[in-house]
Amino acid sequence: MCGIIGYTGTENDVQEVLMTGLSGLEYRGYDSAGLAIANGSLAVHKREGEVSALENALPEMTLDGLAGIGHTRWSTHGPPSDENAHPHTDCESRVAVVHNGIIENYQSLREDLTADGHEFNSDTDTEAIPHLIGSALEAGVAPEQAFRQAVDRLEGSYAVAAVFQGEETIYVARNESPLVLGVGDDGHYLASDVPAFLEYTDRVIYLEDGQFARVSPSGIIVTDEQGAVVDTAIDTVDWDPEDAGKSGYDHYMLKEIHEQPTALRKCLRERVSELEHEITVEELATLECSGPVQFVACGTSYHAALYGARLLRENGISAQCFLASEYDAQSIPVSDETLVVGVTQSGETADTMGALRMANQAGATTLALTNVVGSSAARECDHVMYIRAGPEIGVAATKTFVSQQAALTLLSSVLSGAESPTLIKQLRGLPEKLQHVLDESTAQEVSAEFVDADAYFFIGRGYNAPVALEGALKMKEITYKHAEGFAAGELKHGPLALVTEQTPVFALVTGDTAAKTIGNIKEVEARGAPVIAVTDRPAEVGQYASHVLEVPTAGPYLTPILANVQLQLVSYWVAAQLDRSIDKPRNLAKSVTVD
Ligand code: AGP
Q1: What is the pLDDT of residue 27?
Q2: How is the chain split into domains, by residue range?
Q3: Residues enclosing ligand 1, CB less than 6 A?
Q4: What residues act catalytically?
């Protein structure tokens, strides 16, 4: 939710670095984009719309300066507009500020500042920050202290960065919003997420909540709330900058769908050994789980969590799954024996972080299942297991869902001690089977027939039920068309009333629930709806469906993972034919850092 970038260096390439970073961050919000570059004065440019709109609005001559900040916005306070775009400045344009998060006390700050004569130009909560800094400068306070004093008055969540007229240093602070610093050879960086500066450096410092940093061409100094210097570790990120590009695909989403075999191999590497008939996850070596397991997650990650909870239950562990935004550790029994698992690709989702913090407070053991090293979930939970999918830029989660499902299969095996040689073999063979689905899929042709449908329904039972929900989420997210997913048995309890000749039904027919799902297909067919069966038994199921999307058999737990890939492709091709903004669907953002 909003992306921030900053750079200060010895070469005069600030504008280029900021624009590259903004393009890499656009998945976090695309309502507006802006930048500020400090020189003798402050050059501030901002525009409603995507980064390309900002690019067109920039002067022909590259802006001079050695320090700059940039921002892509996902609107919270005030609609998308040039005025509400960041950076925001004080009345005298001595300081420019970008911010990701929500300042909860902005209304009272704004009233106080307005009473003191400050004029606001936007509806944003952020604009209070440069005015607070401006007040302190007015009183003769030096820039760094003015920044700290302003941040001290903020309540809420923030990753905030400020540049001052005539200064090469960028001042930053973080509380409950992501912020990572980059250590380069010719300069230093800050961003909401590593891919924004990965092209320039892979050495990073993860700022903690409550910390401040002074980022200058000569170095980075991190301090605590009292101003004492903090010793920080420099980590190396093992993501390839290539991973963050489109590699010739029209969209990140399609590229990421095709990266799934590789993502799976990475997730399973050194964890699943066919030779030793063993599943081991090094990160979980010290995790003890004697009591019930609760999963908390949102959106696609919630669907993965539903799949994971079912796996645990089948392996004899009591497991429940909660939407993180509905989780309340006070009304849900949590004890020090409970393991609460936050499934979150970004590791920053506010709802999931809120639930994990509640669980922590209630004394539960917490585990983050995440893709992002150093994310809030990874740092705040007692344990972390990485899904190792690599950077995912498309707002619609694809490869991270598959990697979450694979990682949850491993987690279930580790917690229950169930290591069947069959499962190990099936896991090892999964990437190849997924590649087969990608190579042979007829989803593009099938979807062409249903572009004009009124609505799309997805049904499945057992492990296929969460996949049906995910299929519908993907469809609505990127096509903007109505789509619903149901546990197949539920159809007859109401949704069947919606089924017509204009509503294709995608039925997931695999595993030992297939026979019952075929019964549901017949109910749908009797109402005239076209049925597209996604199945590993085409000969048997084909006679009941108008179309078949075939998947190889990979066992009862893993075949649904393959079936999901066909649904991803169907959504993608429907969206492509409708010419939708596939990587940046309207109103959405990759990382949802507001409640
Ligand atoms: C799915 O395509 C969406 N991007 C969204 O539902 C997402 O899964 C959800 O916001 C949770 O994000 P997280 O995994 O980063 O916590």
Answers
A1: 81
A2: 3-242, 245-438, 441-595
A3: 298-301, 344-346, 349, 352, 395-397, 477, 591-592
A4: 2, 590
CATH for 245-438 (3.30.1490.20, 3.10.50.40, 3.40.50.10490, 1.10.150.120): 3.40.50.10490
> Rounded to an integer, what distance in angstroms lies between the CA atom of residue 508 and that of residue 536?
9
Ligand 1: which atom is nearest the Cα of residue 592?
Answer: 10
Decide whether 3-242 matches 441-595 in CATH topology: no
Q: Which residues of 535-544 are buried (b: 16+ CB within 10 A; e: fewer)?
A: bbbeeebeeb
Alpha helices (H) along 244-298: 252-258, 260-268
Choose which residue among 349, 353, 474, 564 to substitute to test ligand 1 binding: the one with the highest number of ligand atoms within 8 A of its C-beta.
349
Domain 3-242 fold is Glutamine Phosphoribosylpyrophosphate, subunit 1, domain 1 (3.60.20)
Q: Whose CA is nearest to atom 9 of ligand 1?
A: 299
Residue 243 pLDDT: 67
AA identity, residue 585: P
**Can you list the residues of the chain whose pLDDT is less than 70?**
240-244
Q: Tell me the one-letter amino acid at 101.
A: G
Q: Using the mean position of ligand 1's atoms as its centre, give its distance from the Cα of residue 475 in Å.
A: 14
Instruction: State the Cα–Cα distance between residues 48 and 51, nearest whole angstrom.
Output: 9
Q: Which of 303, 345, 387, 571 to mutate to test the pocket of ligand 1 (most atoms within 8 A of CB)?
A: 345
**What values do phi and psi take at 520, rounded to 5?**
-70, -35
> Residue 428 and residue 420: Cα distance in Å, rounded?
13
Distance of CA 163 to the CA centre of its chain: 28
Question: What's the confidence (pLDDT) of residue 374?
Answer: 81
Q: Whose CA is nearest to atom 6 of ligand 1?
A: 299
Question: Distance from first CA to last CA of the chain, Å, rounded?
Answer: 11
User: pTM for this structure?
Assistant: 0.81
**155: its two tokens:** 């309540």
Query: Which amino acid, one-letter code, is at 353?
Result: M
Does the domain at 441-595 match CATH 3.40.50.10490? Answer given as yes
User: How many C-alpha atoms does 457 have within 13 Å on its Cβ side?
Assistant: 27
Q: What is the pLDDT of residue 561?
A: 98
Q: Closest ligand 1 atom to the C-alpha of 395?
A: 4
> How many angstroms separate the Cα of 180 from the Cα of each of 18, 323, 383?
15, 28, 21
Question: Beta-carbon neighbour count of residue 579 at 10 Å?
Answer: 7
Residue of the nearest CA to atom 5 in ligand 1? Answer: 299
Residue 474 Cα: closest atom of ligand 1: 2
Distance 457 CA to ligand 1 centre (A): 21
Q: What is the pLDDT of residue 450?
A: 97
Q: Which atom number of ligand 1 is nearest to the Cα of residue 346?
A: 15
- Residue type (1 letter), 584: K
The Cα 381–Cα 454 span in angstroms is: 44
Please name the residues in contact with 297: beta carbons below 8 A apart, sequence gap of 6 or more. Answer: 304, 305, 321, 323, 324, 342, 343, 344, 352
Q: What is the pLDDT of residue 259?
A: 94
Please name which of 250, 255, 245 lies closest in space to residue 577, comparing C-alpha atoms.
Answer: 250
CA–CA separation, 255 vs 107, rounded Å?
A: 43
- For residue 241, the model assigns a pLDDT of 65
Compute how many other C-beta atoms are within 10 angstroms of the C-beta atom of residue 454. 12
